[in-house]
Structures are given as structure tokens and as C-alpha cells.
Amino acid sequence: MSIKRTPMTARGAEALRGELRRLKSEARPNIIKAIAEARGHGDLSENAEYHAAREQQGFIEGRIKEIEGKLSTAEVIDPAKLPNTGKVIFGVLVELEDQDDGHRVVYQIVGEDEADIRAGRISITSPIARALVGKAQGDVVDVVAPAGTHSYEILAVRTE
Fold first, then answer.
1. Domains within the chain, CATH numbers bracketed
2. Which residues, in sequence order, are bridge partners of residue 96?
3. pTM, full prediction
4. Which strands form 121-123's sheet, in the order they lie side by side?
5. What is d(CA 4, CA 121) in angstroms, rounded to the nearest whole number?
6. CA neighbours closer than 13 Å in the CB half-sphere of residue 1
7. HSE-CB for 73 with a 13 A CA cutoff
8. For the chain, what is the radius of gyration of the CA atoms?
9. b/e map 79-102, b = 16+ CB within 10 Å
10. Measured in whole angstroms, how far is the alpha carbon of residue 95 from the centre of its chain?
11. What is the pLDDT of residues 22-68, one digit of tens each?
């Protein structure tokens, strides 16, 4: 059985490590204190603070497990070390022009956890990234998305 690798950039892996450190060193101890304090208020069956703290503890522990799992299967890809083949691959910057209105955008294709459309980072699993992968400058790509089909021309493909 092969392990499914989780692609991410070095920046994305470091952000997950930072979140994991914060959860383990700050959030977990704080919630343990909150639970202890809520227990001191008496009857646990009617103690809303206790139940809220336990729910928060479950969320924190779940997120810790999720991050540890992703980091254990991480395939950290440094876009700067990738050969510039001119093709759209994980980590590259892609400049696109919408064929309908001429609007231009630049996206970096990144892992799921580091995607942030406002910062110009799209997930490798997004419809637009899936349509772009393997294409090259000058290609026109039709992207089928929930909002409808859009055509984009790839103006440039470059590494960071």
C-alpha cells in the first residue's frame, strides 16, 4: 500500500509547523487550564463553560492530529529548485488573461493548506490548477468551475 503524498511548498510546510507549535505550546495548555477552572465551578452536567472547553479541546486535538498527518506525508517542493520547463507544474507562477474580459491575474500553484486566492495562491486540486497543469505559455485553457466555464490564455509560466 502506497502512502498518498501531500505536496506543499517549503513556506506552506513551515506555516503548518508554526501552527502545530502554537497549538501544542499555547492552545493546548490554555484549554487544559480552562477545563480545570470550569470543573471547579461544580456540577459538570449543567456547566456550559466546561462543555465549551471540552468541545474546544476536541477541536484542538483534532487539528493537531490533522497537521501531524499532513506533515508526515508531506512532499516539500521548492519551486526555486524546479527546472524551468515552460510547463505549468506545482509551485510555478502562472500569468493568465481571461479571454472574455481581458482581465489578467497571476497565480502560484500550491498545496491545499496554503491556498489563498487573495494572495494569488491556488490549490493544486482546484479546477483552474487542474486545467493548467501540463500546459505551456501561449496555450488557451478552458476551465470548468462552479461559476461556469472560462477561457484563459497562459501569458507566462515562471518559477519564483
1. 6-77 (1.10.287.180), 79-158 (3.10.50.30)
2. 105, 154
3. 0.77
4. 121-123, 104-110, 93-98, 148-158, 140-145
5. 22
6. 1
7. 12
8. 21
9. beeeeeeebbbbbbbbbbbeeeee
10. 20
11. 999 999 999 999 888 888 877 666 778 888 889 999 999 999 999 99
